[in-house]
Amino acid sequence: MKVIQLQQHCEKYSCRSYLVLGNWNALDDVNTLIDPGIDATVISQIEKVYTGVGKSPVDLIILTHNHFDHAGGAAEAKKFFKAKMMAFSPGEGVDHVFKDGDKIRLGDSIFEVIHLPSHSDDSVCFYASREQVIFTGDNTLRVRNSEGSYTPGYLEFLRRMARSGVKVAYGGHDLPIEEGLEAVIIESIAHVEKALGVV
Q1: How confident is the model over 26-69, as pLDDT tens digits?
Q2: What's 116-165 look like in SS3?
Q3: Quick check: 161 and 134 in contact, CB under 8 A?
């Protein structure tokens, strides 16, 4: 699996967008755009990426949730690349609605859909257990203090990630965490437990 971080919009508030490819650009790889962002500025970036001979640069667009800074450019990107689109909730241009626990192929890897309605009702993460990689959308794994408002479900998610051995997290706005993620999650659990009054 190759993950290409696309450049964020320089003038508008937008999310981090990712292009997921297979290691060898094989014909059966599913070139996937995660969260196109507020508009379609990522299209010009993707056009410059080598994504395989005879393949569309983007076969699939998936949304971590439908907030405008993540999904505003989805319809235009879908039309431009003639791609399918998947999300947790139905909406304009959504071809398939996935559910918690579904397995989907991104690039050359299999990811599990994890529904985590703490940021929004339709928020999901995508976790590849073999590669120990997760795309979290706006459900960050880095909680810096205990002053926020959290749900028991979010705490259980953090505990699950601690047990999973996940090594790399790609977030919706933060920089990716590519080293020391285990310690980050342990610290986050402590902050969330304190916020929830868990002893």
Answers
A1: 999 999 999 999 998 999 999 999 998 889 999 999 999 999 99
A2: CCCCCCCCEEEEECCCCEEEEECCCCCCCCCCCCCCHHHHHHHHHHHHHC
A3: yes
Please choose, from the candidates 149, 152, 143, 151, the residue with its C-alpha nearest in 3D space to the C-alpha of residue 186.
143
pLDDT number for residue 10: 74
Report the DSSP pairing between strands 32-34 and 17-21.
Answer: antiparallel
How far is C-alpha 118 from the geometric centre of its chain's CA atoms?
15
Please give the C-alpha separations between residue 9 and each of 15, 17, 75, 102, 158, in angstroms, as whole numbers.
8, 10, 17, 31, 29
Ordered by where they begin, the domains of the chain are: 2-196 (3.60.15.10)
Instruction: Tell me what pLDDT residue 199 has.
Output: 67
- Kindly report, residue by residue over 109-141, the tens digit of the pLDDT: 999 999 998 778 999 999 999 999 999 999 999
Q: How far is CA 7 from CA 18, 41, 45, in A?
A: 9, 9, 8
Give the sign of the dihedral formed by CA 8, CA 57, CA 67, CA 155: negative
